[in-house]
Amino acid sequence: MTSPRPLNQADLLSLARDVLAIESDAITALAARLDESFARAHALMLNCSGRVVVAGIGKSGHIGSKIAATLASTGTPAFFMHPAEAAHGDLGMITADDVVLALSNSGESHELIALLPAIKRKGARIVAMTGNPRSSLGQAADVHLDAGVSKEACPLNLAPTASTTAALALGDALAVSLLEARGFSRDDFALSHPGGSLGRKLLVHVRDVMHQGEALPVVSTAASIRDALFEITRKGLGLTAVTNADGELLGVFTDGDLRRAMDKDIDLKQAAIADVMTRRPKTIDANRLAVEAVQQMEQSKVYVLLVTDAGRLVGAIRMHDLLQAGVV
């Protein structure tokens, strides 16, 4: 190895821009080359009754692992199979109903080539993604996808850089085309990502995090202001709902209502809660997504919403509850 040659800032930025330009050009050229082979590969994967088995060795293996993860998370059952492990038993995971997506820039990776006879005997279809259509892998495949690049971004033209970027982008194109063809929705995506922020936003409903039952502050229209204040203190939500005997929501009483009553010199000992409450309070349906509660709170500039179901009070939800649920 030669001695280090520190780059000045101008040379450093110039080199970085060259790398990005080369990789960008590789993807642009790839897009221009797309043809019916892509459509055939798409059809094989879409109609596959088994799984898409992605295989690759070295840097192609790392890219293949990511492609398999993207396929699996967007509605196409898929997993990554390491060629070396496949030769020692993992090949048993492949069935005749599967499609094997094999990645190799040269198309001559011997670990992959050695698996081809066994894969074909099993009856699985093979989609090859290589930089050489005339390679052993390209010729043996049912469909070949040309992911070749004119040069690597590495100044030595050796390290897999532009070629791995092109393969990853082509894998993304396959995954997205399959997502679209399957009608994969935001809800479907959330079900595949329940631990992520999008999953929480699309799966958590108001009813899942609201205060209800004994934790819900509520008084009748006949209650005194004193009774209402005690209820607010006991339940700790900063307000109390006001309902009739049938549980229908009629209003809400907050510390803001108390201040307004005091400003109007209302006799707080004699007044009923119905005289000072806010009618038509901000509410949200229990079946709405929790993220919609966040949006409504922000628009209305409130931190608590009463929750209703067909006009009847069923709960209350605070911004703090939504923060704890990871929705915000």
Structural features, described:
The protein has 328 residues and is an alpha/beta fold. 46% of the residues lie in helices and 17% in strands. The protein contains 16 helices and twelve strands. It has helices at residues 9-33, 36-46, 59-73, 83-86, 110-113, 116-122, 136-140, 162-182, 186-192, 197-203, 206-209, 225-235, 255-263, 273-276, 290-300, 319-324; strands spanning 52-56, 78-81, 99-104, 125-130, 143-146, 218-220, 239-243, 249-254, 278-279, 283-285, 304-309, 312-318. The strands form three sheets. A five-stranded parallel beta sheet has the order 2-1-3-4-5. α15 (290-300) links the parallel β10 (283-285) and β11. The longest helix has 25 residues, at 9-33.
Q: Strand order, main sheet: write it out.
A: 2-1-3-4-5
Q: Identify the overall geometry.
A: elongated
Taken in chain order, the helices and strands follow as HHEHEHEHHEHEHHHHEHEEHHEEHEEH
Give the averaged pLDDT, no decimals.
89
Largest sheet: 5 strands, parallel
Instruction: Give the beta-strand count.
Output: 12
